[in-house]
Write a structure and sequence with these properties.
By secondary structure, the protein is α/β, with parallel strands linked by helices. It has 13 helices and twelve strands.
Length: 340
């Protein structure tokens, strides 16, 4: 592997001159710059950003930990985060914690060893279980928490308002005449899931509808979980509408309902949350709550860069509003057949 000394020797200049060309830190003669760039190209030289970071304490990298690559929401969010990072000339190192507190801690230590200048944590588990640990890490590098508030930890956060999103969604279904509205929620009491459940519960209460425990089922954050949850729900009750705490759960529920011979939305309306790309591709297209991932990514990275450049700047909780997207999977209850 070529070194900076090899580049300097081929170009006939000093290592300092090569460094100036690479970092654009000083004016270099046009012909000299040309020779250096030609030497870099011919040697296929790649500068060591880790070594550079150890010298300057700047690596232009930050780490991201997400819960699960299998959820399309995170692939869409990561795409937006990487685009925002490039605008600021930063590179993101991505890890998945698989919703395991110990694994998340291991990845945080790994990212610190890579000299990252900041971290973006979409970690349902570690924020809840490792509060002291996160507080200690925040003293070393700036941290942005996504998908939930900061819970008093000295970090910033950027997340969608899931509570209001589920209030909008539940209001809409009630306005359509639905009273027996089932909900598929997360098996684990993650803040992002819990606030959506509370939006559902409080909106039912606002309309004078008593929450029916038979219409609330818990499962894992997967389409398969939604499928099994719908199976359990229909074995003990007959809702006219079902909402999933995310789109994957709703899509899984829709699959089971249609397999059992029910029509969506004619017999049972289905809705979700997140507005992943798949929600507009299933048939019927899924009514959902849109999370503006571009806006969340923009706010999160902007805040992270601000903290990197000025560690003493204030932490902020940035709450992004959501939008109800009405599609073909829901319709007024007056069109529903009586379920036996």
């Amino acid at each position: 592997m070529a070194t900076i000394s090899d580049v300097a020797r081929i170009a006939g200049v000093s290592k300092a001159t090569v460094s100036r060309v690479l970092n654009d830190t000083a004016v270099v003669n046009k012909e000299t710059r040309k020779r250096v760039l030609q030497a870099i190209k011919s040697l296929n030289y790649m500068p060591s950003y880790l070594a550079k970071g150890m010298r300057s304490k700047k690596t232009s990298t930050f780490g991201i930990i997400i819960p699960d690559f299998r959820n399309p929401y995170y692939s869409e969010l990561l795409k937006c985060i990487e685009e925002e990072a490039r605008k600021h000339k930063f590179i993101a190192i991505i890890c998945t914690g698989e919703m395991n507190a110990e694994r998340e801690r291991e990845y945080i230590h790994y990212l610190l060893s890579r000299q990252v200048e900041g971290m973006v944590l979409c970690c349902y588990v570690s924020i809840l279980e490792n509060k002291t640990f996160i507080q200690d890490i925040a003293k070393k590098v700036p941290i942005i928490v996504m998908d939930q508030p900061s819970f008093g930890i000295p970090v910033s956060s950027a997340y969608a308002d899931g509570y209001k999103g589920f209030c909008k969604l539940t209001d809409y279904l009630i306005e359509q005449g639905h009273v027996k509205i089932g909900m598929i929620r997360s098996l684990h009491k993650y803040p992002c899931s819990e606030c959506r459940f509370l939006g559902y519960r409080d909106t039912l209460k606002k309309h004078g509808i008593e929450l029916d425990p038979d219409l609330v089922v818990e499962c894992e954050f997967t389409a398969a979980g939604g499928y099994e949850a719908a199976k359990r729900m229909l074995s003990r009750s007959k809702p006219t509408a079902i909402i999933g705490v995310n789109d994957l759960l709703a899509i899984g529920a829709m699959k089971y309902i249609r397999e059992k011979g029910y029509n969506v939305p004619g017999d049972i309306a289905i809705a979700g949350h997140d507005n992943i790309a798949l929600s507009s591709l299933v048939s019927p297209q899924l009514t959902t709550v849109n999370i503006p991932v571009e806006k969340i990514a923009e706010e999160a990275i902007s805040q992270l860069i601000r903290k990197i450049e000025n560690p003493r700047s204030w932490n902020r909780d940035i709450v992004i509003d959501t939008q109800l997207i009405i599609r073909q999977s829901t319709e007024p209850v007056t069109k529903h057949e009586i379920l036996m």
